[in-house]
Amino acid sequence: MHFETIIIGAGAAGMMCAAHAGRSVLVLDHAKAPGEKIRISGGGRCNFTNMWAEPANYLSANPHFCKSALARYTQWDFIELVNRHGIAWHEKTLGQLFCDGSAKQIVAMLLAEMDRVGAQLWLNSSVAELRKTDGGYSLDVNRDGGHRTLTCRNLVLASGGKSIPKMGATGFAYDVARQFGLNVTETRPGLVPFTFSDARFKPLSGTALPVRLSNALASFDEAMLFTHRGLSGPAVLQLSSYWHAGEAIRVNLIPELDLFTALRDQRQTSGRRDLSTELARHLPARLVDFLAPELALKGRLADQSDTALQTLCDGLRDWHLTPSGSEGYRTAEVTLGGIDTDGLSSKTMQAKAVPGLFVIGEAVDVTGWLGGYNFQWAWSSAYAAGVAI
Ligand code: FDA
User: Fold this and answer.
1) Does residue 8 contact residue 25 with C-beta atoms inside 8 Å?
2) With a 6 A CB cut-off, is 189 part of the ligand 1 pocket?
3) Listed GO molecular functions (predicted)?
4) What is the whole-number distance in angstroms between the Cα of residue 307 and the centre of ligand 1?
5) Nearest by Cα to 223 from 210, 207, 239, 232
6) Measuring from atom 16 of ligand 1, which residue has the nearest CA?
7) Which residues pair with 247 in a beta bridge?
8) ipTM more than 0.90?
């Protein structure tokens, strides 16, 4: 059986590419259903893009690589597609756009787009072997217990990264890339909670507050959540993509507050108030209790000198923590690193040295921030390959 184009992976990128790749397209996936990560994304509402997406929101060994694709298929193009399909949406925060209804609407939209151009979808299908032929590629495919050999002119790798192996994520795209001589950069989990082996934050589990979380490479002002295993929440997930094992992170627990002035003023008017009680007006009470020994919180406001208040505020503004690790691919939203962009055309996503081989989506060494940026990369890179085919 011959197809012009075979796309491996019916996820965000694979389905989007199929909708733009012209005629005679087959999308195959080893899963039972297409777009499973879309379905579970954004708490079931899919944060499908971000109004403010731009190249600065992406990590890659080559930060310029994503520019061309993102410019040619923008967030506004995807919003237009969503509108055309009558899917209602809203901005939650920071430009993040979610479906009002369900993420399943995005999956249905992509399937309808594939239908419109007559692309075929084979589920429960895995590739046993892949070879380069004179005019393209030959694939041995296992499907529903049977075995078939397929040929195609263009082969698109859209099988994603390694995050959430329970959902069928594999390193398949990386293996195929290496088979054809492409380089694969070091991969590691991104957008992932931090763990602390001593479970020190267990008493704070469930407590959340707005923080500024930083290391030498990046800084994020968003919420942080204490968990029984460590730290999570948007600020933590964001910083995790810039974190390397063994490094310390810095937490500013009072990013938007001039706490020193507030405490000094209170000392003036309510000096008899307990320092911890006063602090609990600005921070979660459980966190104040937790920090009390470390920050030597004791006595009344009136007992605190300016220097003591300043030392306290400095401590709250610059809390150094060293995570023992991360939760890994088990819960990571994305894989950092991947197929080296040096070997790919940024205009078409085609391998420079392997005609007819394209790589799109998360398999490529381009990773977005939390907040709809990763789906936007999937749409943009898929469109670039689709129109080039
Ligand atoms: P994707 O992983 O979507 O698709 C790959 C497909 O290939 C899958 O269908 C898989 O079954 C198939 N496959 C894998 N190996 C194969 C093999 N060997 N043979 C055949 N098929 C194979 N991003 C965002 O922008 N907004 C959000 O709200 C979220 N939320 C979110 C929540 C959770 C829990 C996760 C894990 C991730 C997110 N993300 C996200 C990230 C987003 O899901 C991710 O960046 C995109 O799905 C990547 O799209 P791809 O099409 O590249 O891979």
Assistant:
1) no
2) no
3) oxidoreductase activity
4) 52
5) 210
6) 159
7) none
8) yes
